[in-house]
Automatic annotation (TrEMBL):
Protein's UniProt name: ATPase
Pfam families: ABC_ATPase, ABC_N, MRB1590_C
Organism: Leptolyngbya foveolarum
Domain ATPase of the ABC class N-terminal: 7-164
UniProt-listed SUPFAM superfamilies: P-loop containing nucleoside triphosphate hydrolases
PANTHER family named among the record's database cross-references: ATPASE (PTHR38149:SF1)
Highest taxon of the lineage: Bacteria
InterPro entries: ABC_ATPase_C, ABC_ATPase_put, ABC_N, MRB1590-like_C, P-loop_NTPase
Chain ranges of the ATPase of the ABC class C-terminal domain: 170-445
């Protein structure tokens, strides 16, 4: 293995050479405190940046044993180090030539604390994957600048970002404790028959729709009404003692209130409560059931082989809805398909905001029932199925509902939001519903499915993905709201629980992996999801990474987002199989 001095001199000697001569530095190098691997060299200064890997032994890093032997603590410390490396790298940035010259980057994290492939830490050491822009002027190598970048700046990242003695130990301790407290809170939900918990003092508003950081000024912190103290529940944490807050019970819950009073903000916090968050996020002790899925209408999406018959039936032309497909779903059809797909993936809690829902999917009031008879309306509104969904499948639903009081009659709990504060108004809502002599007629039958017949389930066929060139896997491109597999673009805007573009890249790799190993006619989609997630649990994100370059730009996702992305493939091919959910 060559050393730092050899690399530095080699780079200086390349000054003024053509950019392609950088290819000769690919390989492994021994530095005093770490090893450097140059794994990929870009073709020119404007191309995708070069990729390097740093390996630091624990003899150098010297992290406490308690943080590198516990799997959860490893996740937190790796997340913390990712943020620290990003900060140090940003401080070292300087102009060093054309294009991406001189840039050092790591996959930048969101507010969520999740596993990523950028940093791994264990009892042996730390591995960090970075991208660097090898410097050039035009297409001529800036060798001296490259020597400073790789031989001076990178060691500073190790010294200031990866050695325990240089880091804020108290801050890291807080990261670990915040993560462990959130895990403890989430683990108590099921035994307390809750699906979500929002603590007193939480800061739920965000800076904007595209900035997930907490609102810095003027935010109303979440409180419980002091005049009704029994509205709160107390949960235990290992580091913060008892935490009091609003516990949302299993069943059917409505969140009501006037406009701009915090209904959707509360639902958004519950939606994001499937993730743990960094200290100071304001939602770091707001938790929800891990199998919580947000649904919305998504006009124009494709649907392949979904049994939407519990919600949409008797289609014109005697068309079956047991194995329904379309390339251009309406709002109501897309929401019905999304709901069944969530059940297929194993969801236990559904979240719906009326602002992003199809009106005719949610409700058919008594006046419309009087004008259009049921035999002329294929859609069974969700109001008549939401109770059955819980009774038959144990799936709870939380709905933001500001425009229809008809849901009062099917709700177990009604929460009223006023000035971002919550109070329980279930008794008042029930009284109003019972006092109405002209209630609408239920159209949903007795069970969620007709006569209790199980939903049809799907298997994904292996030729569901567009082919790549020359027999290769399709090329992957990722943005936070969409991915491209070959020529096929998948719109992800409606999958609101994706928080990072790195998750999108990981989902794309997982789809390619599933196609290679698990898409087949006798395996249900649910079973495929099981297999993929189990492989990741055993082997990490690298287990499904079909890109041999190991770019370090993957982040952990849930089975629900993987399922949703697969279901939105316009090239998806499915068949029904005789297995029940």
């Amino acid at each position: 293995m060559k050393d730092r001095q050899w690399l530095k001199q080699r780079l200086i000697d390349l000054e003024g050479h053509g950019y392609g001569d950088y290819k000769g530095i690919k390989g492994d190098y021994r530095f005093p405190a770490f090893n450097l691997s140059v794994d990929y060299v870009q073709g020119d200064p404007f191309a995708a940046p070069s990729r390097i890997c740093l390996q630091v032994s624990q003899e150098v890093a010297k992290f406490p044993v308690r943080w590198i032997t516990d799997y959860a603590a490893q996740t937190v410390i790796a997340d913390y180090l990712t943020r620290q490396v990003a900060q140090v790298a940003q401080s070292l940035q300087q102009e060093r030539g054309s294009g991406k010259s001189g840039k050092i980057k790591i996959a930048a994290p969101s507010q969520a604390v999740i596993r990523r492939s950028a940093v791994w830490i264990d009892s042996d050491g730390i591995e960090v994957r970075l991208t660097v822009g090898l410097p050039a002027w035009g297409r001529r190598i800036a060798g001296k600048a490259a020597a400073a970048l790789l031989c001076d700046d990178i060691p500073q990242i190790v010294t200031n970002g990866l050695q325990y003695s240089a880091l804020d130990a108290a801050r890291m301790e807080r990261y670990v404790q915040t993560f462990q407290d959130a895990e403890a809170l989430r683990n108590q939900l099921t035994q307390r028959e809750l699906v979500a918990f929002i603590p007193e003092g939480a800061c739920l508003p965000r800076q904007s729709g595209v900035d997930e950081r907490p609102l810095a000024r003027g935010a109303d912190l979440f409180t419980l009404p002091s005049e009704i103290p029994d509205e709160g529940v107390e949960l235990d944490t290992p580091h913060s003692g008892k935490v009091k807050g609003l516990g949302i019970k299993a069943g059917v819950t409505l969140i009501v209130g006037g406009g701009y009073h915090g209904k959707s903000t509360l639902l958004k916090a519950i939606e994001q409560g499937v993730y743990n968050h960094v200290p100071g996020d304001g939602r770091d002790r707001t938790v929800s059931h891990p199998d919580t899925v947000k649904l919305r209408a998504e006009e124009g999406r494709s649907v392949s082989g979904v049994d939407i018959s519990p919600l949409i039936n008797r289609l014109p032309g005697a068309r079956s809805s047991k194995n329904f497909s379309t390339t251009n779903a309406s709002g109501s059809t897309s929401q019905a398909a999304g709901l069944i797909e969530a059940i297929e993936a194993g969801a236990k809690v559904l979240l719906i905001d009326e602002d992003t829902a199809a009106t005719n999917f949610m409700i058919r009031d008594r006046n419309m029932q009087a004008l259009i008879s049921k035999d002329k309306e294929p859609i069974t509104p969700f109001i008549d199925k939401v109770r059955q969904l819980y009774d038959d499948y144990g799936i709870s639903t939380i709905l933001v509902m500001g425009g229809s009081g008809d849901y009062f009659s099917v709700a177990d709990t009604v929460i009223a939001m006023e000035n971002y504060q919550a109070r329980i108004v279930t008794e008042q809502a029930k009284a109003i519903a019972q006092a109405d002599p002209n209630q609408r007629q239920s159209e949903g039958g007795i069970n969620f499915t007709k006569q209790g017949i199980p939903l049809a389930v799907r298997a994904v066929l292996p030729d569901s993905l567009p082919p790549g060139r020359n027999g290769r896997s399709p090329k992957v491109k990722a943005q936070k709201d969409k991915m491209t597999l070959g020529y096929e673009e998948i719109d992800l805007r409606a999958i609101e629980q994706i928080v990072e573009v790195h998750q999108v890249r990981a989902i794309a790799q997982a789809i390619l992996y599933a196609q290679r190993y698990y898409f087949e006619s006798n395996r249900t989609l649910s079973e495929t999801l099981d297999c993929v997630m189990e492989d990741i649990e055993r082997g990490g994100l690298d287990a499904v990474d079909q890109d041999e370059r190991r770019l370090g730009d993957l982040a952990m996702f849930r089975r629900f987002e993987l399922s949703a992305a697969i279901s939105r493939l316009r090239t998806l091919k499915t068949i029904s199989v005789t297995k029940a959910y």
